[in-house]
Specification:
The chain is an alpha+beta fold. The protein has helices at residues 25-35, 37-54, 61-75, 77-90, 94-101, 103-109, 199-209, 213-221, 273-276, 287-296, 298-302, 306-312, and strands at residues 16-19, 120-123, 131-138, 146-152, 159-165, 172-175, 179-185, 229-236, 241-249, 252-256, 263-266, 338-346, 351-355, 368-369. The chain folds into 2 domains: 23-108, Arc Repressor Mutant, subunit A; 113-369, Penicillin V Acylase, Chain A (4-Layer Sandwich). The protein is built from 12 helices and 14 strands. Mean pLDDT is 92; it is low at 1-13.
Length: 370
């Protein structure tokens, strides 16, 4: 599936690993902020440049960041307190941390769509732990802000491990109650009016609080968002597993279930028929052939051999489905996409299984656990 002669260089190892044992949000935020200080400053500079490139006025960024913090404070006061401490620990103004967490919402204010974003595949058709895998696709400039964080929930009832960007609450992750989250960005015609609760804050609350798909759906539905995303929530409780894609946007929330084979696939367009009426993905966008490729090769995901799950994602532009992304030097930097991480939820072990780069470089010895 990888064309002969395709060169897929590995990224330099630059993923920060942070483990915090403190349940106190302020102390935890200070510790995380201090641990990822360099990554936060790198992310701030990177997003300043990205926002300017897509037409966000630099003079608007402070207001956007402050509105994001206010939205989080109204919806999840504990997360707001933690973010204020992250700002102190990383030595940046609080609005900058608000800006980072609202990066998706800020992009939505100017209609900057996510052409090269992520692809997710889940299988729950057999007894035992689910099969899950996704690419995390973003601009290569943000590789240095990639972060893995492990921490106890504020109530101390469970632990969470998440992959995210430095200074951002959460993205892809698992908790010790047997629930995990994959994360893909969507685009809807109702996006971009003001700054609502950041979708990354929604992912964090799901990981920290939810033990079931129903609880995850209720948390997501309670958030007044201004941008769209899909959280693919997977659960495992011994021999039985379940999964659902929770699509959310300002127009509402919908749940997409696995098909009769137990397969659940998602890229970057809405699958719920109602929400799909407002979908903003262009007909020629790569999200459609990527989903078609995943569906056509679903038997690889259903295999008990994890190497086959990785093979499912090893498709490039020349294959007609750029699931594994590589930069195109002839394009401006903000239009170049890279697969910066390949990640699977190991719910039986309660951790993330990940590769520092795209699936085409993920040999058997390349995988790590967190």
């Amino acid at each position: 599936m990888i064309p002969a002669g395709t060169e897929c260089p590995e990224l330099p190892l630059s993923i920060a690993h942070v483990r915090i044992d403190d349940v106190d949000r302020e102390r935890r935020g200070l510790a995380v902020g201090a641990a990822v200080r360099r990554g936060v400053h790198t992310a701030v500079a990177g997003y300043d440049a990205l926002f300017a490139a897509v037409g966000v006025e630099p003079s608007d960024l402070r207001a956007h960041g402050e509105r994001a913090l206010a939205a989080i404070e109204g919806w999840a006061p504990g997360l707001h307190r933690e973010l204020m401490a992250v700002a102190a620990g990383s030595e940046v103004p609080p609005w900058r941390i608000g800006m980072l967490n609202a990066r998706t919402e800020i992009l939505a204010t100017v209609g900057a769509t996510a052409e090269g974003e992520c692809s997710t595949a889940v299988y729950v058709g057999d007894p035992g732990a689910p099969h899950t895998i996704q690419t995390w696709d973003w601009h290569r400039e943000f590789a240095a802000s990639r972060t893995l964080v492990h921490f106890p929930s504020a109530g101390g009832g469970r632990t969470v491990s998440t992959f995210t960007e430095a200074g951002i609450l959460a993205k892809i992750g698992v908790n010790s109650s047997g629930l995990g989250v994959h994360f893909n960005i969507l685009s809807h015609r109702t996006d971009g009016t003001g700054i609502g609760v950041p979708v990354h804050a929604v992912a964090r609350r799901v990981l920290e609080e939810a033990t079931s798909i129903a609880e995850a759906r209720d948390i997501a539905a309670s958030a007044p968002v201004s941008a769209s995303t899909v959280l693919t929530v997977v659960t495992h409780g011994g021999r039985e597993s379940d999964a659902a894609c929770i699509e959310l946007c300002p127009a509402g929330t919908a749940v997409v279930r696995p098909d009769r084979d137990g397969v659940l696939l998602h890229t970057n367009h809405f699958l719920d028929p109602g929400l799909a009426e407002g979908d903003q993905a262009a007909p020629q966008a790569s999200t459609h052939p990527r989903l078609a490729h995943l569906s056509a090769h679903r038997e690889l995901l259903m295999s008990s051999d994890r190497a086959h799950w990785t093979q499912l994602l090893c498709a490039h532009e020349v294959d007609g489905a750029p699931i594994c992304c590589h930069p195109q030097p002839d394009l401006p930097s903000h239009q170049q996409w890279s697969t910066l991480l390949t990640v699977s939820l190991d719910l039986a072990a309660g951790n993330l299984r990940y590769h520092d780069g795209g699936p085409c470089t993920a040999g058997a010895s390349a995988w790590q656990h967190f």
